[in-house]
Specification:
Shape: globular
Strand content: 35-45%
Largest sheet: 7 strands, mixed
Distance between the termini: 36 Å
Number of helices: 4
Number of strands: 14
Order of helices and strands: EEHEEEEEEEEEEHEHEH
Radius of gyration: 20 Å
Length: about 240
């Protein structure tokens, strides 16, 4: 995401695994009563820049995740992640402008059958100002088109660089002791945080370990009733939350 092209030549993998000696055949498409909506956060195409593009999904219909299966993310025909959640966010990594294929599907747990899938084209732009005002829409073939920029657009009012999750986690961990010390120095019992979209408090949670380790207090907000119930169970008996 930096202005110097030298920083765009090395692309980190989303995850690595040893190739199987006997690769399993692709899942057989059997169909199912459900759908997957692909979208981006509001203004993501013009505001959030860097090598990591965000693609969000939401499952609806009769199919239930994780009861009936898992959500699979493919970028340019390669599987890069699997999630057991009915809604969430994937990161697609790209270093050069161009069009990239995105596929999100629901498969059964043994990965032999595919129920539904949703496709999109992710257009990677060199600069934020190249992203059209309409961030999502139909392409020439009628499919969904999403946008992302490698660098901020000159006069962008929202210059936020998208960075890998691990980088953000490391930054939070490094900052936590100073945050706690500043809170105690001000007379507070502990640091206080506000988390909007707290999910169940554990799955891919960026602050769960910090709350436990540093005894932080805070306000955790989760609008989905099923996840909120699990969030309450996660922090049952934890003070100041």
């Amino acid at each position: 995401g930096r202005d110097d092209d030298r920083h765009l030549t090395s692309v980190p993998l989303l995850y690595t695994r040893d190739p199987p000696s006997d690769p399993a055949p692709p899942a057989r498409f059997v169909g199912g009563d459900g759908s997957i909506r692909l979208f981006q956060p509001h203004m993501a195409g013009r505001c959030c820049w860097g090598r990591h593009a965000m693609v969000r999904y939401e499952v609806s219909g009769a199919l239930s995740v994780p009861e009936d299966g898992v959500v699979v993310f493919e970028f340019n025909g390669v599987e890069t992640d699997v999630f057991p959640f009915p809604r969430g966010e994937f990161q697609a990594v790209a270093s050069h402008p161009g069009n990239h294929s995105v596929l999100v599907a629901i498969e059964n747990h043994d990965r032999t059958e595919r129920f539904v899938e949703s496709r999109a084209v992710l257009v990677i732009h060199a600069q934020g100002h190249d992203v059209p005002e309409t961030e999502r829409g139909a392409g020439a073939g009628g499919g969904l088109v999403l946008h992302h920029a490698l660098r901020r657009g000159g006069e962008s009012k929202c210059a936020m660089e998208c960075v890998p999750t691990d980088t953000m986690d490391d930054a939070r961990s490094e900052a936590a002791p100073a945050i706690s010390a500043r809170a105690l120095a001000s007379g507070a019992e502990a640091a206080f945080l506000v988390q909007v979209g707290a999910c169940d408090g554990e799955s891919f949670d960026p602050v769960h370990a910090l709350i436990k380790q540093h005894a932080w207090g805070g306000l955790l907000v989760e609008p989905l009733p099923d996840l909120f119930t699990r969030l309450q169970a996660t922090y049952q008996g934890v003070p100041r939350l």
